[in-house]
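Recap for those who missed Tuesday's class. We walked through two folding examples back to back. For each one, the amino acid string is listed first and its predicted structure tokens come directly after. Nothing is annotated here on purpose, so try labeling regions yourself before you check the end of the notes.
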Amino acid sequence: MEKEINIKIIGTLTPEVGVAEKYTVKKENEPFEIEPITLGSDWNDSEIEWFVHVRDAGKWRFINDGKKIGKTVDFTFSEISQDWEEIVIIVHAYGGKDIINISPQPAAKPKITFIELLDENKKTPKKSFTYGNWIIARVHCVGMELRPIVVTLWENDGDKYKLNTKNLKVNTQKKFVKRGFADIKFYLDPMHANLANSKADKGESDEGKFHEYYVTAEIAGKEESRRATLDTHVANPDYVEKKLVVSPTIGFPVREVINSLMMVDMSPQSWWPFKETHGKCKNCEKDITLNDIENAFGTYINHKIARQEIVKYINEFVKLSKEKGKPIHLDTCLRKAHFFAQIGTETLGINPDWMVETDAKRYSVVNCKTVFGDRAKHLENAGLLDDYCSDNPQKRLLNYVYGKGNGFDNGNGNEASGDGYKFRGRGLKQLTGRGNYKDASKILKDVFPEHYIDLEANPDKVKEPKYAVLTAFAFWEKHEIWKVADSLKESTDDNIKKIRSKINPGLAGWRECKKYFEKGLEVFKVNKCQPVDVTQEDNGKWRFPIDNPMLCMYSQGGLLKPWHGSFGKNIRDELANHTGNDLLAEPGTKVYACVRSKVEKIYTSSSLAGKVVVLKVLDVETFKSLRNENYLPKYKNKGEILEKGFDPDGDLYLTFWHLSKNNFFNVGDEVEYDDIIGLTGISGWNGINFSTRNPHLHFEVSNVGSAPGLEGKCNPSVYFKFKTEDELSQNEIDFQNRLKEKEWK
């Protein structure tokens, strides 16, 4: 019987992600060498086989791209390899066998490794693209997790070195890298064919049978990192057949000349837990432009600069609110159409002359009757309307129509107080009434503290573009008008009156609003918008435990483990259960009761829970109406479950952990759905803060209140639609990353 040969693998056990590492096999007592053996050796290369196996979610599987032949081979490990539980390289030679465990290390520096051009089915194209197709640029990176890359589609107009000095830039997009790559979709608009042919050489009617396109990708802000693909051919629809026939070719992806283990073979559908979301369209989160405003409301030559200032502040504060994790809800095409229809109605089409009520355009008698209805009629019956309208400024008129006792005071004093004129309409929303100025100040302090000003004491600030925008946002958010907007997709009289009543209870201007909304549907391409998730209706009886609730993407140690915040058995890497949902929250975030309840228990735990509030649900009917019988555990493969011994018809409790403050109420108090019952924190054992990279609110739904363990508890996501990682906007991802970079103590 032939003796088995003892063999040994030589090579690093800690390869750097994205770097090709050589591995060789040697016989016992054979001198070490890491170069391929020459032909004629007693080791036949074809009889030496290498394999790579990985353990993922508790199961072992073979990696196709890991099978190699020869004495010396090279492997390149991708970003995803760091998330596998175990990786082994196995070699077989002459009956001998050796195994080593591999632990890939993060890339030393971020880089783009290669770009693939795929068809709309995410497959390598088998024929040339045509106009009307989608091209998907898949950009592979290392050291770039959740960082942005800038990707551009170009039409090649002769700059063979692709320095982009004369080529046509078609479209540029920014995308965040997830699990080592990012997919960017580009539409080959047939209109671009005309533009490409317009650059044909003199005497030619077109640029030939094919137009050449290519893609570049670079790390945001680092042009030196740019990589480019080879040209891919797109059939020219205007090509006229000539005697010389050009054979079509396909531009295939550029790759580094390496054996790219786990980079080429792995289809994202097989391992990528962040499934592509189709909830947003490309226009939903686009910045507002001056062109949008002019298309919607017409052009005011004398007010171009003032309107540009307004546009600037709209975009600036929308972005800032998202970075703070308290986003302004102006992030869908439909919401934009409704928002601008309302502020257009209030300001005569964003006309800066109407930024302060009556300063530039006074009320006529006719307008007064239209806008103020019975209030104007009372003045007319008293023989005062003509006189009041002839005043300049119209102080008496506004003090009367907005005075206390007339039904539209909004917190003003009586006619003699002068509040009606002092707190007259200003800004994009035409913020009116002392109470609304006060409310707007509170919202500014909460969402934009660095821009806070007491508007009640300084009402004239609202006419400035900055505060004209901020107060419009404050009103939009305070009265949750965006929720009404989500359900009104058609321009019917009833729909417009419904949302208009949230702005003006007397429905003044609803017909103008209808016209503006119909124009907004066109300008913001609402009918071309991809589906958006309709807001879970709160019907005035319930709300989320915190504003903009999202599950934590990172573990307490700062690792990308979005399943850690879900409800499940052994969901913490098969080591520990988790009894609720972890909702990312900067310490000090307000915590709400959710539904009408009774305070069951307030205490400081001797366990990790820290400062805790337990509520017993009183409005059972509303709470039961929230249950989603169709909810499917997103992380079932990690251990997420629906419930453990939970009875939806039993007593219902809501439990809130890790609070920094939990003494807003006393045990036995009844609380309404929108009462603040605490502030988030990072409290743990005996109320002492623990150290974490994901400050959060731990939230539970149960029959058992503060009892430990899973028994008698339900996955909160069955009742509440919290955002998961594939539903986050780029700004929300930025927010998660910003909190993760700090060690909270």
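Example two. Treat it independently of the first, because the proteins are unrelated.
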Amino acid sequence: MKNENRHKRRNRYMKRTPIRGLLAAALLATTLWSGTPAFASDIGEEIRIDGNQPAVSKAGFDISGEYAVWIVEGEKTITVYDLEEETEVKIGDKQSDKTNPRVDGQYVVWIDSRHGGSDVYLYDIVKKKEIRLTDGTATPVEVEISDSNVVWSDLRDGKSDIYLYSIKTGEVTRVSNSGKASHPTVSSGYVAWEDKRSGNADIYYYEIAKKQEKAATTNRSDQTNPSLYLDKIVYENDKSGDVDIYVYSIGSGKEKQLTDDSEDQILPALYRDSYVFVSDGDLRLGDIDESGSDEIESRIYEKLPPRIYGDYVLFAKQDQDKILRIKLYNLDDEEPVGIGGMSGEPSQPDGDDRYVVYISETKNAAHVILHDLETKTNTIVSKSGSEPIRPLVSNRYVVWYDEDEEALISYDIKRGQRKQVTDEDADPSDSLYELFGNKLLWVDQGRRYDLYVTDLSSGDTEEITSLRDEPLTIDIYDNFVLWVTDEGSDRGSIYLYDLDEEDETEIRRDVQLQGASLGENFVVWSEHTTKTNSYDLYYYDIDRGRTDLVIRWTERDQVDPQASRRMVFFADNRISVDKKDYYYELYDIEDGSFSPYYWSDDAEIEQPRLSGNRLVWIDTRDSDDPAVYTMAFARPNDDDDDDNGGDVPGDGEYKEYNFQKVFDDGTLADVLGKSEFDKVFFVFRAGTNEEVAISISDIFEDSSEFIKWMNSTRFDDIVIRVYN
């Protein structure tokens, strides 16, 4: 229920000479410590977590038939989303950069850098098979696919031409010879592209069956950015002084102007008779057989062209934090719809200093979603096709119960690894488990109810106690374990166990209870008082071994307490007209006062959880759009993570940056803020047998080695490697 997290940051370098080595160290320290962590958002500020529009990179996206594809920001795999099943899978290796993901039918293509240059790769979704289409001699920069045809523009030999690959035959054909061809598009029978052989940009096409190249338009003006469907090509044309959308029919050989506006109309995409384009930042829809167009969405991201297929339009838009998100618009229903495995209805949230987890459930699937408050990104951490419930997060671990496997599953955020915690012989409860750091408290409900603590970092498991009956509740915080035995008639006894001393203490015996929880050096519970006919809050000071009253109100109740750090969150009806109407309060045990930080008046809180430095809940203030909300009541905990797993994060995913480039373009601070100190490395002589990697954590402990390498290495030869 509670979590401790450590936030750290990153680094970068400069040029030669001893003084610059010292300056690099000084700059590093200044950059890292000059601001607060990105996830340490203002205390008391509500944050709405939205998974309906995935955060994506600028590498591109596509939609066709049953699937949509994109690359999540910060990832290197390609997400393939099944529009019907509402499930997603990741394809491609986890190390290489990828761009231009495209999909048609059962095939996905993209440009991949895994061999040091760039190559075109193809993935068969049905066969789950990946194929490299180019052999290293190609230099592809754009790729498209339709039916069994793959096309790309290729910069080999210092020229730019279009190549066609047939999935059916495996044959590669060069379809242009001008050396000035780009922006290819393809259908089942034709390839079209933009060509500057005459000095200005024209549209040319290639008939696949006849193996013939022809000009579509060769006006003195520029015709650019073609999009092809069957034998129709839509494209941009600036013959009127501004840019308009035109269509060319290969069958009739006729050209037709589709738009006529003083604003530029750009980035057309065609499907059957429908086409989309962008005008003054707005996404619009038109029909090639009719005049006029309708606005779909305003202020979209213009650097990535929209895509259209069937009843769907896929496009990108930046949110208020400048994060790029893809959105899906249903043309039939004339409304936006959720996309991605995170687009389902949220439930069962939990939180930590840096992370929030919850279940996203669609009509066909359920997923555990991990939201990073620092990067503002969402990740599906559960296995596709599994049945997860009740996720918890603390520090670097996420834990949930899988109803299909009937087991507890953990996910290591740092390493990106998922594993089953309980073996086949165990029968873990699907509701009685709690998490603190790397310690998982759980109940094995066999012949008896056995409480165990499993160290997720080592896999070691320790039995705490064995109970005859199912406990009413359990909890863990720091080195203490809590359980409440069931004495019948809503009565229970509260026990506290010290993991270090292996000592059990009964702190309350056979009292009428409504909830108990562990906080920082205290236990809090709701106990019925006969004299006042009310449920009152009590707490037990672990250091002093003393019980005190927190709140009492005659014939009014404070119930279901949750504790984290020194805070207690509970349901209260003291000021309600009707005793059945409860509201929520947040109380500081240490100060003996109510918290000054509160959620907004219009909040509709359901399924609340207090953990780490924050409260998380499902909010139904927008009845048609329930969402996960969170609010921090304290700064993130800066305690060290005792389980770093070594100096180098192993073979995990990472991204590399050139130090000179990020130093010159002013993005050094952004790069340094992307991960934790022990996951960001300055790499000298990268890719050689003499490679040296020094983490930020090591630099702060002893900067001499770092300064030595900075003084002996050119800035543009230094790599910053950031592990996920």
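Answers for example two:
The chain is about 5% helix and 50% strand.
The longest strand covers residues 503-519.
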